């Protein structure tokens, strides 16, 4: 894949998604269920405001010192025996991965769910080179065998499919003959993938967070596939976005504590694996070689921009679950790998306004996302700012339309679906004057870069080759 | 080995408005320390009760026994599923426990790091039950911490359908914060540390929770005095 997940123009995409009742019911149920679970988990934890302020401060601190922490992480990881490769863009990252697999004469790789590998289009490249790549997260696996269907949510990728669709796909592609009871479907996949795990030469993972002080990479899963991928194969490749760091284990505590609660309403996930270097001399299992590929692919551009703080994101998916637009169009409506408020705030600056400016119109500017993000990314404010910049650049009467957005078309005037009651939870829904004004007033921001993002971006050329 | 660092890092430094990384990072000030307050003054017994209640709430089977009775407790657990059994090479497990299990089920293997990957993993793959000892346990999230190295191979608590983790009662601490403190203090880290907070599970199909995906289907904690 890459950042773009649909060839259709925006309006057609929206029309298509709005006409998909299975998806719409599934997403609405998922939002209600997961939001309730998350609320309960944070209520039990208590002090949500303090947790998110602290988590936000940690993430912001990392961004402010990213050059320092990345250098330290690389040194410590290398000292633990890992190979660390810095990849400026998708092509460099994938080429390195492919080269390792070729050198090792690998035939099969097992993968645990990873957004950054999707972003750089790793699977396609490896498959074109004749390698078998097996996604091992249950949802991802189903998408993969369903003719490469696209994820609709960053935590629960096959959220748009119901059990009947799972059964049909497994029956058609893998000869499954059972019923559509989730347990039976799951057991069937367990047996299938178990073989792949044990046969694979290479394990490919993302990295939830890396710990700078020790050179440790971490993986968080419930299914246990993260553990498998880092246990059975002889070679492990870890792809990590360059901002996914914490200074020490103390910060990992805070981030993991809010991540599991935000993502799935659990105190922690079933497994959190901390990997420091390849297996030791006393170890029988685990990888003999560990390669960590650190990926920029536009992130340094985001870091240098006024939208830096979007890199705080811990990929929990909460903003999607709170978003009334996402509710109706799912991740597919956005046509981008990172959907929802996160996608609208991040993708236009990660990959450019030319291709990804228009999607910011999807947002209704209700502000719900900014209220729930566990690391206090000013999502609403950033989306608004993108729209303002685009409208100003266009300097047309259309500018106002741009600010008004497409949201009316998305939701239809009379169909508010009880959204109002849900949104009533948020006290700060009154239209906010001046983007960023409130946010900056309430917090100590890292110095805002002197060049405005749009000037900077224009100077680099819109397609944005890295400087 | 590190490749491609200079250009990559300089781009970041540049984006942050400087020529090179600073010698030291800015000071990180925590606005709050709420994580340190959780059950900060709880007695050991209280922590143990919280741990047990939280573990049971997520479908973990929790047993308690004295160290002397550990073998009996394990035999009882394995009786339900049958062997073979794979044990971590840990003093708590390799003496009496191993003897009793061999007597009862014949096939009981102790992880032998010297024997290499294929042999160990094949035994773990065949085993119905894998038993390991936790470094510590965390009350808030019903978590156990496994240092997976040497005699405690990663596969022991991963491949068999049933996972048994033995916890010393005095190692139960309040929450993740204390485990991270412990990791921070280690001079060297094992290549693999795993936090386990439940049997493997998924909610990928209609968000219905299914217990047992790629890892163990069942998880048992035994707390020993
Ligand atoms: S922007 Fe915030 S809420 Fe959205 S996925 Fe990232 S961390 Fe979660």
Supply database-style keywords.
heterodimer, A: 467 residues, alpha/beta, Rossmann fold, 2 domains, six-stranded parallel β-sheet, four-stranded mixed β-sheet, B: 225 residues, 7 helices, binds iron/sulfur cluster
Alpha carbon gap, first and last residue of chain A:
24 Å
Largest sheet of chain B: 6 strands, parallel
Going across the biggest sheet of chain A, name each strand in turn.
Answer: 1-10-7-4-2-3
Determine the most extensive contact between two protein chains.
A-B, 113 and 84 residues
Biggest beta sheet summary of chain A: 6 strands, parallel
First-last Cα distance of chain B: 46 Å
In terms of DSSP E residues, the strand content of chain B is: 15-25%
Characterization of the model:
The complex is a heterodimer of chains A (467) and B (225). Chain A has 467 residues and is of the alpha/beta class. Chain A folds into two domains: 10-301, NagB/RpiA/CoA transferase-like (Rossmann fold), CATH 3.40.50.10420; 398-462, no CATH class. Chain A contains 24 helices and ten strands. In chain A, the strands form two sheets. Chain A has a six-stranded parallel sheet, sandwiched between helices. In chain A, helix 16 crosses helix 19. The longest helix of chain A has 25 residues, at 21-45. Chain A starts with 9 loop residues before the first helix and ends in a 7-residue tail after the last helix. Residues 411-457 and 460-467 of chain A have low confidence and may be disordered. Chain B is an alpha/beta fold and 225 residues long. Chain B has a single domain, classed as 3-Layer(aba) Sandwich (Rossmann fold), CATH 3.40.50. Chain B is 32% helix and 23% strand. Chain B has seven helices and 13 strands. In chain B, the strands form three sheets. A six-stranded parallel sheet of chain B has the order 2-13-8-5-3-4, with helices on both faces. A four-stranded mixed sheet of chain B has the order 9-6-7-10, with helices on both faces. In chain B, a hairpin with a 4-residue loop joins strand 6 and strand 7. Chain B is globular and about 70 Å long. The mean pLDDT of chain B is 94. Classes of the chains: A alpha/beta (467), B alpha/beta (225). At the A-B interface, helix 2, helix 3, helix 4, strand 1 and helix 8 of A face strand 1, helix 1, helix 6, helix 7 and strand 10 of B. The complex binds iron/sulfur cluster.
